[in-house]
């Protein structure tokens, strides 16, 4: 058993983290108080559950065991602590895991306030969680790099974790703000933006690059577009923050499936780390698809006979095989990508696919082979093109703790992809461009200077981001020489 400690930082991180824990409780038959809701859970699944949960010191009933999450909820901005306290089911968690410090001077929401602030109490609670672990594997950090707490405090915490626990895997699930002014459908997203979000995102990139082992990137605009195409929208309802966070939670739940469910054919978190070719190139993108999406897609009208051409004559074409092929194709397309990047302009370095539901191993292998032969996912010629795959059964989930109908529905089968592609540099270029527009005019720098972040610090962090972009461009533009025959 290897434990994972989850730390939610800032309002966005707490929103996502709370949905994630509700999801885990529903999948593992846990009630609001963490008690076993069903008696048919076998001993092995309960043992795996302890990767994310641990026994409480005192159960509600003497004859039952209570599990509580290994987690911390941290928020320091005055305008959001009251809201953060409301959205969490406090009876589900240990009361000590809530660290809400109302700093009345943090209303500017800057990176410097979170990065240079006093955080001794937060580090102390983190150490206590580590001490109760038998074999700690790593940390999950949920945050948005557009806010002050999610950017500054997350960066400071990453640096401390790298120093104190250098051999533990640090995985960040980071939500990036919109870097373009949008109208129409995206107006509610742009209206909620903070004016210094480009600065916060740019400043946090240094710690995400140097101290995180894996960074899962998400983009509000891309999440909104996926939710809008969902066939489970009721009466053309407008996607909201909960719907968009559902997509992020789906990725987190997929990445943690190997810890929570037994599978003889699974992709572990360590496997994702092993497929990173260079330490700085650990920014992953994700995508999700289910049969509901492909059946709702009017642009794909191919018949089974037309899909058969991608397979060898020996392979018998079935509806499940065709669905697997189309779903794998979709998770490599821009429409299902959870960041606004163009995959056609980049190349893949590695990929991990998690299949949930009643999948047959042979079907998945044949579908992956056909997609690779189609040439749609463009890998570097010098990189192994093996796909890390995981197959997990669809566990029946209870309906308690479900505050709103999921935008994804409850499909019998689904595919979640986690890919390492050079196309993620598009996201970094947007951050650099917007930060430079403000920095060249010295706009809003006084908010950061009052907490200790000087103009020279800004220049250095901007140069490091430009260096990262240059590294991605260099490997992306590398021309492979044809071998001599």
List the helices and strands and how they pair.
Layout: E1 3-9, H1 10-27, H2 43-49, E2 53-55, E3 67-69, E4 71-77, H3 78-87, E5 98-103, H4 111-116, H5 120-131, E6 136-144, H6 148-164, E7 169-176, H7 187-191, H8 197-210, E8 214-219, H9 220-228, H10 241-255, H11 257-260, H12 269-274, E9 283-289, H13 291-296, H14 304-308, H15 319-331, E10 348-357, H16 361-374, E11 388-392, E12 413-421, H17 425-439, H18 445-449, H19 455-476
Parallel strand pairs: 1-4, 1-6, 4-5, 6-7, 7-8, 8-9, 10-11
Antiparallel strand pairs: 2-3, 9-12, 10-12
Average pLDDT metric = 79
Report the CATH architecture of the largest domain: 3-Layer(aba) Sandwich
Largest sheet: 10 strands, mixed
% residues in beta strands: 15-25%
Number of helices: 19
Into which percent range does the helicity of residues fall? 40-55%
Number of strands: 12
- Low-confidence sequence ranges: 30-35, 37-44, 481-485
């Amino acid at each position: 058993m290897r434990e994972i400690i989850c730390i939610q930082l800032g309002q966005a991180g707490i929103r996502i983290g709370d949905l994630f824990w509700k999801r885990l409780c529903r999948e593992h038959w846990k009630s609001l108080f963490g008690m076993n809701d069903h008696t048919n859970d076998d001993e092995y699944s309960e043992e795996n559950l302890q990767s994310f949960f641990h026994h409480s010191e005192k159960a509600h009933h003497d004859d039952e065991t209570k599990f509580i999450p290994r987690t911390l909820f941290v928020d320091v901005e005055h305008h959001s602590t009251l809201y953060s306290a409301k959205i969490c089911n406090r009876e589900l968690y240990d009361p000590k895991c809530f660290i809400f410090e109302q700093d009345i001077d943090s209303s500017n929401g800057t990176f410097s306030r979170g990065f240079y602030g006093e955080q001794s109490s937060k580090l102390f609670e983190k150490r206590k969680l580590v001490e109760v672990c038998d074999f700690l594997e790593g940390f999950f950090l949920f945050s948005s790099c557009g806010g002050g707490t999610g950017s500054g405090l997350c960066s400071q915490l990453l640096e401390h974790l790298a120093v104190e626990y250098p051999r533990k895997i640090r995985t960040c699930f980071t939500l990036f703000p919109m870097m373009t002014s949008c109208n129409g459908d995206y107006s509610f997203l742009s209206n909620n933006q903070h004016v210094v979000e480009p600065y916060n995102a740019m400043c946090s990139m240094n710690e995400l690059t140097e101290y995180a082992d894996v960074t899962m990137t998400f983009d509000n605009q891309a999440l909104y577009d996926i939710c809008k195409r969902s066939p489970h929208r009721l009466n053309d309802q407008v996607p909201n923050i909960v719907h968009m966070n559902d997509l992020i939670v789906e990725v987190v739940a997929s990445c943690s499936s190997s810890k929570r469910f037994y599978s003889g054919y699974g992709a572990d978190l360590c496997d994702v780390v092993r497929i990173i070719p260079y330490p700085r190139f650990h920014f992953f993108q994700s995508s999700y698809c289910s049969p509901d999406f492909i059946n709702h897609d009017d642009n794909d009208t191919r018949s089974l006979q037309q899909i058969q051409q991608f397979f060898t004559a020996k392979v018998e074409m079935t509806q499940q095989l065709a669905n697997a092929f189309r779903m794998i194709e979709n998770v490599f397309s821009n429409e299902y990508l959870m960041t606004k990047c163009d995959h056609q302009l980049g190349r893949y370095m590695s990929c991990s696919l998690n299949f949930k539901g009643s999948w047959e191993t042979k079907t998945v292998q044949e579908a992956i082979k056909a997609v690779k032969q189609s040439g749609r996912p463009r890998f570097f010629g010098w990189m192994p093109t093996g796909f890390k795959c995981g197959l997990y059964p669809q566990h029946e989930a209870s309906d308690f703790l479900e505050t709103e109908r999921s935008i994804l529905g409850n499909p019998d089968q689904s595919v979640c992809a986690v890919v390492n592609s050079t196309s993620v540099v598009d996201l970094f270029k947007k951050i650099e461009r917007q930060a430079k527009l403000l920095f060249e005019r010295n706009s809003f720098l006084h908010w950061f200077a009052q907490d200790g972040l000087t103009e020279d610090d800004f220049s250095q962090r901007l140069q490091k981001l430009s260096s990262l972009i240059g590294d991605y461009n260099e490997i992306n533009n590398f021309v492979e020489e044809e071998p001599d025959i």
